[in-house]
Write a structure and sequence with these properties.
Number of strands: 0
InterPro entries: TM_pro_TauE-like (IPR002781), TSUP (IPR052017)
Order of helices and strands: HHHHHHHHHH
Shape: globular
Number of domains: 1
Radius of gyration: 17 Å
Largest sheet: none
Subcellular location: Cell membrane
Structural class: mainly alpha
Distance between the termini: 23 Å
Strand content: under 5%
Membrane topology: Multi-pass membrane protein
Number of helices: 10
Family: Belongs to the 4-toluene sulfonate uptake permease (TSUP) (TC 2.A.102) family.
Keywords: Cell membrane, Membrane, Transmembrane, Transmembrane helix, Transport
Helix content: over 70%
Length: about 250
């Protein structure tokens, strides 16, 4: 697979890896851009496996920054639902061909963007976070959807961000809980992905070459956190995610 990659493809992959690092230390949920970029230039199934390893590298940087601030009760409450979602995603990947995986990734990205925009519109109207709840029903709804989307498309960032926001987490608790949640889930996904043949020696070699871009993105994200124009950045993330999803559909 590596031998057939053109300089343009490597450039897109490097940008995606850079975004992975940024999303882990500065903009939770921004990794959907990396999902779209990887799926646009690689076979959809292989893109999921290749991106997973880079996400795990990014998780390590997030833990270094926010590991002391997790709310473990929330993680424990969501764990059963996440396992159900992971199993459903694994079953889908086991039977779906590349075209179906590409379409589902695109649909999931568009749904995540749509729900995110709806939530922000509700917030603008009410002046507060919409009350979606943080109890058992919300934990199972968001947990199962997060498990499925992360297994199939590594696209659970915005889904889980909405749940953590709905739970009224302070900033550090939000970042710490998110860091531990995705670190544990992504490591748990690794055996499934290896068993499905979407994490391979070839993809690992490609990841090794892309890790420096993740490191650079994570370090830049730590410096930029709290200094960037968040509104502008969010709009850019949403626009690029929509463009990537539409590319996958077409």
């Amino acid at each position: 697979m590596i031998a057939g990659l053109t300089p343009l493809v490597w450039t897109v992959l490097a940008i995606g890896a850079l975004v992975v690092g940024l999303s882990k230390t500065a903009v939770p949920g921004g990794g959907t851009v990396a999902v779209a970029l990887f799926a646009a230039v690689l076979p959809a199934r292989e893109s999921t496996g290749a991106l997973l390893v880079l996400l795990i590298v990014g998780d390590m940087f997030a833990l270094l920054s926010y590991r002391r601030h997790a709310d473990w009760s929330v993680i424990a409450r969501m764990a059963p639902a996440v396992v159900v979602g992971l199993a459903a995603g694994w079953a889908f990947l086991a039977i779906a061909d590349d075209a179906w995986v590409r379409r589902l990734i695109a649909v999931l990205l568009l749904l995540v963007v749509a729900v995110t925009l709806w939530r922000r519109r509700q917030q603008a109207r009410s002046g507060a976070e919409p009350a979606v709840g943080s109890g058992a029903v919300a934990a199972w709804s968001y947990g199962s959807l997060g498990g499925f989307t992360t297994m199939v498309a590594n696209a659970a960032g915005p889904v889980m961000s909405m749940y953590f926001l709905a739970a009224r987490f302070p900033v550090k608790a939000f970042l710490g809980t998110s860091a531990w949640f995705f670190a544990l889930v992504n490591v748990a996904k690794l055996p499934f992905s290896i068993g499905l043949g979407i994490v391979t020696p070839s993809s690992l070699l490609m990841d090794l070459l892309l890790v420096p871009a993740v490191v650079v993105g994570a370090l830049v994200g730590r410096r930029l956190a709290g200094r960037m124009d968040q509104v502008l950045f969010d709009r850019l993330v949403i626009a690029l995610t929509i463009a990537g999803a539409l590319y996958l559909l077409l």
